[in-house]
């Protein structure tokens, strides 16, 4: 890792239907968007001719001006197509998406000085396992060895930081991009789960279509007026220059450009019914694969889209006027062969015009949200609000219109086009949740509150998973077993040659030290697994805590409790044997427990500073594997048991030695398990460790054996801490050593 990219740890990529956005993120949570061709987004369209390379962004658009047949504006919509026709050849859809990802990675390396260790890809709403696998394959085709996939809705719900969602409550995430997708997400103890998702053609593409039809109609009407005014015999007052600012077409002009019986509103109405998202949805495939322009070519649509986005911050925008495709020198759709309108006329798109064109489309998106909530079958009173993401959400008035139609408190996230990429990049663990298979509700109701009376079941408290319940249990039981067995097996001897001398306490100090260390380990596991659960239900606005604060606080609390339990073991031992042995026993327990607690505290600090949470979760990642704990506990207890009983001479000569050898074998295996992380390395290191420990195992060397095992346990935590601070814990369950 170079000095330039040392601060940047991961890049998040959101490949959309129209545009692709990407952000680079640091360990402290700071992020910056990547720019492409001078813009904070990359056009998703790709171009290829013959056997040449796949072009992206502005290069693809420029090449498509001369050869439109080789251009595909939405490669993500064709990712499952084995052979996408481009020009005079075919290309797999996975390779086309991979070309877009590769372009983002090239810009990342240029911006950060080298490749980043983690690449996060946003999974669009409704993409099930088949298309997720294809998205992973596309990233691998682009050169990413182990891409991380984050579902968009779950990531935004967890890291949108606009609405606090307590456990067992739900929230709606509406992605208004080229299309519209409404997802109902519920928070659980372990993360977030998607209850229902519904997709519809009610996004930016439809708004662009409405604007393109309006502008083409107005341009044609203006051109006809100008032609008529210059005809011989025309009235002098009609012989004037065509107007260059047309806000909207007249109703008659609009009807002239539409099929008989159609209305201007019908120009945007999709005859395809709204269906819930699924990989097998034929309507979605048809809608994403067919050509969208109705009254203008896709090149004009690009111009309209740019103007629409500009009106979010500018009252009015000038664009070249579309020209009738029947005009000589024009390509289909009214685009001049040179790419510049022959007449040089300009038209005006205003913010009010964009809002008027978007109104019916946003109303359709509102109905999709109502249907999604109905399909989720959640009580209305447990809803927390609605989050808007996607470029279309930036249109002024969108959030207010949706809130009026749904009754949900609606928040458009800042920079909505980048919201999914930022949330996925900063997201923690998300267990994959299957795509819902709820049936399509019949009818569309206008308001969620009127369709969901609070007659459903009351919300219930989420139940922790079994892994969370048992993760801290094994080290806790092992700690108590070792501590009380060591105390009960100890003995006190009075000096026979000096009656006034201090009494001698015979106890396995190594076993007591292991019990103290395991108390810290168990308490840290409790903090890592249950820290997020203790998050307050309500957080004041503007005081959103860091994402890693619950886990960091849990680890610090666990480390302190573990040290206190270790000191308690010393006090119990001294009280049981009724002698002045507290200082000696405290040395045996705290000398081992305090360094381990310090390592845990360092890990907590790094998590608090913004270390990325692995997919396996902090709880699983920071819980010491159970096998080495069980093996070491059995071995040390067996050594103490064999040395503190009176056996016949024949037993002392044979079975006691055998118990020591077997205990050394178990301790060697437990030590190798902790020192190494890979299975092959564990096997190689186990051979010398088991041989050495079998040879030296005895009651007199028990403290030495315990020290070796405690050091290996510290090595495990040091490795975890280094992974957290350097590049993050690998997103692989194999690293949990289960």
Automatic annotation (TrEMBL):
The chain crosses the membrane at residues 469-492, 512-530, 551-576, 588-608, 620-643, 655-676, 683-702. The keyword Magnesium does not apply. It comes from the Bacteria. Gene3D superfamilies: 3.30.420.40, Actin, Chain A, domain 4. Residues 238-255 have a biased composition (Polar residues). InterPro entries: ATPase_NBD (IPR043129). The keyword Oxidoreductase does not apply. Residues 223-294 are annotated as: Disordered. Signal peptide: none annotated. Keywords: Membrane, Transmembrane, Transmembrane helix. This is Hsp70 protein.
């Amino acid at each position: 890792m170079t000095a330039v990219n040392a601060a940047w740890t991961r890049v998040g990529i959101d490949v959309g239907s129209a545009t692709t956005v990407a952000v680079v993120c640091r360990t402290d949570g700071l992020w910056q968007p990547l720019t492409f061709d001078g813009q904070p987004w990359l056009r998703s369209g790709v171009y290829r001719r013959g056997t040449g390379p796949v072009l992206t962004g502005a290069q693809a658009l420029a090449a498509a001006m001369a050869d439109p047949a080789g251009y595909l504006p939405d490669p993500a919509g064709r990712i499952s197509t084995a052979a996408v026709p481009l020009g005079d050849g075919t290309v797999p859809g996975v390779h086309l998406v991979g070309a877009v990802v590769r372009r983002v990675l090239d810009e990342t390396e240029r911006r950060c000085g080298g490749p980043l260790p983690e690449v996060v890809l946003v999974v669009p709403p409704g993409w099930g396992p088949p298309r997720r696998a294809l998205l992973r394959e596309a990233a691998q085709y682009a050169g990413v060895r182990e891409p991380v996939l984050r579902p968009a809705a779950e990531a935004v719900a967890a890291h949108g930081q606009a609405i606090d969602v307590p456990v067992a409550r739900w929230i709606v995430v509406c992605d208004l991009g080229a299309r519209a997708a409404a997802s109902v997400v519920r928070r659980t103890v372990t993360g977030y789960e998607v209850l229902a998702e519904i997709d519809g053609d009610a996004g930016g593409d439809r708004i662009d279509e409405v604007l393109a039809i309006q502008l083409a109609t107005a341009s044609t009407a203006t051109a006809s007026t100008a032609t008529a005014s210059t005809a011989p015999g025309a009235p002098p007052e009609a012989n004037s220059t065509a107007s260059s600012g047309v806000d909207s077409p007249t109703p008659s002009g609009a009807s002239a450009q539409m099929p008989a019986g159609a209305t201007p509103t019908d120009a945007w109405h999709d005859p395809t019914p709204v269906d819930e998202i699924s990989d097998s949805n034929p309507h979605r495939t048809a809608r994403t694969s067919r050509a969208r322009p109705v009254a203008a070519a896709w090149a004009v649509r690009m111009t309209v889209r740019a103007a629409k986005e500009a009106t979010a911050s500018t009252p009015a925008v000038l664009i070249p006027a579309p020209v009738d495709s029947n005009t000589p020198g024009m390509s289909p759709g009214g685009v001049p062969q040179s790419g510049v309108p022959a007449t040089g006329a300009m038209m005006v798109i205003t913010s009010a015009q964009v809002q008027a064109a978007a109104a019916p489309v946003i109303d359709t998106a509102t109905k999709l949200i109502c249907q999604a909530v109905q399909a989720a079958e959640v009580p209305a009173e447990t809803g927390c609000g609605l989050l808007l993401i996607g470029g279309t959400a930036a249109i002024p008035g969108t959030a207010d219109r949706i809130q009026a139609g749904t009754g949900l408190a609606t928040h458009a996230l800042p920079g909505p086009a980048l919201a999914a990429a930022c949330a996925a990049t900063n997201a923690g663990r998300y267990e994959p949740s299957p795509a819902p298979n709820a049936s399509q509700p019949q009818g569309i109701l206008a308001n969620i509150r009127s369709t969901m009376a609070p007659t459903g079941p009351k919300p219930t408290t989420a139940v922790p998973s079994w892994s969370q319940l048992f993760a801290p249990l094994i080290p806790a039981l092992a700690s108590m077993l070792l501590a009380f067995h060591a105390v009960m097996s100890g003995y006190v001897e009075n000096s026979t040659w000096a009656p006034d001398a201090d009494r001698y306490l015979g106890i396995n100090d190594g076993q007591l030290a292991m019990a103290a260390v395991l108390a810290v380990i168990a308490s840290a596991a409790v903090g890592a697994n249950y820290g997020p659960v203790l998050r307050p239900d309500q957080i004041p606005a503007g005081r959103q805590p860091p994402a890693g604060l619950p886990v960091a606080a849990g680890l610090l609390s666990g480390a302190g409790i573990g040290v206190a339990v270790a000191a308690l073991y010393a006090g119990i031992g001294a009280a049981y044997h009724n002698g002045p042995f507290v200082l000696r026993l405290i040395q045996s327990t705290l000398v081992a427990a305090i360094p381990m607690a310090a390592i845990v505290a360092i890990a907590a600090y790094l998590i608090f500073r913004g270390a990325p949470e692995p997919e396996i979760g902090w709880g699983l990642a920071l819980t010491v594997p159970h096998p080495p704990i069980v093996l070491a506990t059995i071995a040390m207890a067996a050594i103490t048991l064999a040395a503190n009983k009176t056996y016949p001479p024949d037993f002392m000569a044979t079975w006691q030695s055998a118990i020591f050898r077997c205990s050394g074998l178990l301790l060697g295996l437990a030590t190798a398990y902790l020192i190494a992380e890979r299975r092959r390395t564990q096997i190689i290191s186990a051979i010398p460790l088991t041989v050495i420990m079998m040879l030296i195992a005895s009651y007199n060397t028990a403290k030495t054996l315990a020290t070796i095992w405690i050091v290996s346990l510290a090595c495990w935590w040091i490795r975890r801490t280094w992974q957290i601070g350097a590049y993050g814990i690998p997103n692989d369950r194999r690293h949990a050593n289960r």
